[in-house]
Design brief:
Its EC number is 1.3.99.-. It is found in: Cell membrane. One of its GO terms (cellular component) is plasma membrane. There is one protein chain. By secondary structure, the protein is mainly alpha-helical. It contains 6 helices and no strands. Helix 1 runs antiparallel to helix 2, helix 2 packs antiparallel against helix 3 and helix 3 packs antiparallel against helix 5. The longest helix has about 40 residues.
Length: about 190
């Protein structure tokens, strides 16, 4: 019975943690893009994003991570023999990367708060794809364990991930182009009136 409780809350923790990670870097993108706004909008937006980032990191993302890790430890205490399996070692390696990503997000958040972040919104969009890729690998390892298929199914999944990343990047590029076009049209109006 303990195993089922640990597993249930482990899954809940994962959902909360990843929701926080996905949205946190999205806020970083908006925070960086706020630098392109005129005053006083720039200051207002940056202050608001800073508040949202801190709350998301402290109230949702970090508790989700802690719950995930605590319940994983609980799961391992109920099945210690699983520690000898290769798939778990690989999975824990990806979890370690994810923990590093989580803490790197805090570093970026601190840099954004003092205007020292050197990441562009385009670079942050690419960074935002990292947890998606790690999630796919971690879930596949948890489901298939040592019998992870390497047939056509894997290549279809890889293709879907690449298509998803490409679609997100193309959408971001289109939004940037639309905004640039809109700004160009706005700047043309005063010249035409003069």
């Amino acid at each position: 019975m303990a195993y089922s409780w640990f597993k249930a809350f482990h899954i809940i923790g994962i959902v909360v943690w990843f929701a926080g990670l996905f949205y946190l870097v999205r806020l970083f993108i908006y925070h960086v893009e706020a630098n392109q706004e005129p005053e006083p909008a720039r200051t207002i937006l940056k202050n608001q994003y800073q508040i949202m980032e801190k709350r998301l990191y402290s109230i949702i993302t970090t508790p989700g991570m802690l719950l995930t890790v605590a319940m994983a430890i609980g799961l391992l205490t109920t099945e210690p023999e699983v520690l000898k399996q290769t798939w778990l070692h690989v999975k824990l390696g990806f979890v370690a990367l994810l923990l590093g990503y989580h803490h790197y997000c805090k570093r970026l958040m601190k840099q954004l708060a003092v205007d020292e972040c050197r990441w562009s919104s385009k670079q942050l969009r690419a960074l935002n794809e990292a947890p998606s890729l790690m999630l796919v690998v971690i879930v596949l390892l948890a489901i298939f364990k040592d019998s992870l298929p390497t047939d056509i199914t894997v290549w279809v999944i890889v293709a879907m991930i690449i298509a998803m990343v490409a679609t997100i990047q193309l959408y971001a590029k289109k939004r940037r182009q639309d905004k640039e076009k809109e700004l160009a049209e706005i700047s043309q109006v005063p010249q035409q009136q003069g």
